[in-house]
Amino acid sequence: MSRRKVEDSLANLGKAIGRLREAFEVPRTNPLAVEGTIQRFEFVIEIFWKALKRALEYEGIVVKTPRESLKQAFAAGWLHDETAWLDMLETRNTTSHLYLHEDLVGDAYDDITKNFPELERTYQFLVARYS
Fold first, then answer.
1. d(CA 51, CA 11)
2. Which pLDDT tens digit goes with each residue over 45-77?
3. Is 77 left (phi over 0), alpha (psi -120 to 50) or beta?
4. Domain tally for the chain?
5. CATH label of the domain that carries residue 112
6. What is the distance between the alpha carbons of residues 30 and 15, in angstroms, rounded to a whole number?
7. Distance between CA atoms of 47 and 119, rounded to whole angstroms?
8. What's the whole-number mean pLDDT along residues 124-130?
9. Torsion-angle region of residue 60: left (phi > 0), alpha (psi -120 to 50) or beta?
10. Which of 19, 31, 33 is closest to 116 using CA atoms?
C-alpha cells in the first residue's frame, strides 16, 4: 500500500465528514434531513474503515473486515474508544435496515450526533499522521 493511496483515502474521508457535518445544520424536524444524515453517516463509516484498512496496510498490518480494521486501529493507538467505534459500526449495520423500523430512526440520529466528535478527532489524528 502506498502512502499516496492512504492520503487519497483520507481526502475522500474528509469530504464525507464535511458532508455529514453539513447534514447536522438542517433542522431535525425535517424527516429527509434525518434520513440524509443517516445515509451520510453510513458513507462515512464505510469510507472510514477502508481508510483505516489502507493506513494499517501501509504500516504492515493486513486486515480484511471492518471490525478487524477497528480493532487493529485501536491496538495501534489510533482510536480512543474502541467501544464507541464498534457501536458506530453496529449503528451503521442497523441503519441499513432502518426503513423497516421507523421508530429506530431517532435513536440512530442521536447516536450519530453523539459520536460525531470521535469521527472528527480520529480523522484529524490520521491526517496529521499521514500528511
1. 10
2. 999 999 999 999 999 999 999 999 999 999 999
3. left
4. 1
5. 1.20.120.330
6. 23
7. 11
8. 97
9. left
10. 19
* Integer Cα distance of 109 and 107 in angstroms: 5
- Parent domain of 17: 3-130
Distance CA 9, CA 71 (A): 19
Q: How many residues does the chain have?
A: 131
How does pLDDT run across 3-38, given as a tens digit for each residue?
A: 999 999 999 999 999 999 999 999 999 888 988 999
Cell of 91: 449503528
Number of H helices, E strands in the chain: 5, 0
The residue assigned the cell 500500500 is 1
- Distances from the Cα of 35 to the Cα of 13, 31, 50, 112, angstroms: 20, 6, 23, 12
Please state the pTM of the whole predicted model. Answer: 0.92
